[in-house]
Amino acid sequence: LSHNFSSTTSNNNAVQNIAVFGSGLMGAGIVQVAAQNGFKVTMVDLNQEFIDRGKEIINASLKRVAKKQHKDDAAAQKSLIESTWSNIETNTDSVKGAEKADLIIEAIVENLQTKQNLFQQLDKVAKPDAIFASNTSSLPISDIAKATRRLDKFAGLHFFNPVPQMKLVEIIKTNQTSEETYNSLNDVIMKMKKSPVISIRLVERGEASIKDVDTAMKLGAGMPMGPFELCDFVGLDTLKSIVDGWRKDGKIDASLVASAKSLDNLVESGHFGKKSGKGFHSYS
Length: 284
Ligand code: NAI
Fold this sequence. Notes:
Elements: E1 17-21, H1 25-36, E2 40-44, H2 48-69, H3 74-86, E3 88-91, H4 94-98, E4 103-106, H5 112-125, E5 131-134, H6 141-145, E6 154-159, E7 168-172, H7 179-191, E8 195-198, H8 210-219, H9 227-234, H10 236-249, H11 261-268
Parallel strand pairs: 1-2, 1-4, 2-3, 4-5, 5-6, 7-8
Antiparallel strand pairs: 6-7
Bound molecules: 1,4-dihydronicotinamide adenine dinucleotide (NAI).
1,4-dihydronicotinamide adenine dinucleotide is lined by residues 21-27, 44-46, 50, 94, 107-110, 114, 118, 135-137, 161.
Pfam family, one: 3HCDH
Domain 3-hydroxyacyl-CoA dehydrogenase NAD binding: 17-198
Site (Important for catalytic activity): 158
């Protein structure tokens, strides 16, 4: 297989070649966004019919993007479309499709066994230092990673639908994902002009920052304000008395209305949110 993609960066560790498995709704979107932002991408699916469907998805979306970016400039529209396509190759052979990838993003059917089978096969043929990522929406990343022997180079990369429009990508680390892998993925997402956030659990458990949660909900769920911004806007004293009231009431599952230390501490210190100048965020 010829390597017709030239090196464009001096950083040897930087991801340049990406293989995307699955050319459906999500896969096609990921291929488009990667190619549009200068990555060399190989789109892989089971047969030519699926590949052609993926190409149609990209074509339609790319035309819309080009029109939006270069309203009255037909030449610039054409150039964006052509340069994006020049970064895309396709393959129906999973071994060949994976060979030169620095990063493999899987967006195939949502089935654990199918994903494990694919990654087990790819583990044997991909570059030893290639990073593997799954776009699964519901399966535990560590369960999928188990099928490989590169647990330090395995993570979740959760794009949102429609990929070209949604600015958020969730990077999901397992216990074994290395810092180096996380940094490389972060770098890729920034180059795709998306905003990465570490997978959301409670800020109180120290696994995500307030900014992560607010960014995720604004860019990924389309909320006009993040949940912490909204708390500050409503007033933390008001919120605390609502939650305290629910708890006393006893009608709502206690785990849902358990007191939150971070909220209680802010209120005790006189930080009531936007109206007092400080809450979860600071306001000048
Ligand atoms: P889709 O059904 O549109 O596309 C899946 C594609 O994978 C199909 O073209 C299929 O032929 C191909 N495929 C199946 N097995 C394959 C294999 N072994 N090798 C190569 N290609 C193979 O599915 P969609 O919606 O794009 O979802 C893909 C993944 O992304 C799933 O894991 C899903 O949970 C996840 N996801 C979906 C979102 C959505 O809104 N649809 C949002 C975020 C994640």
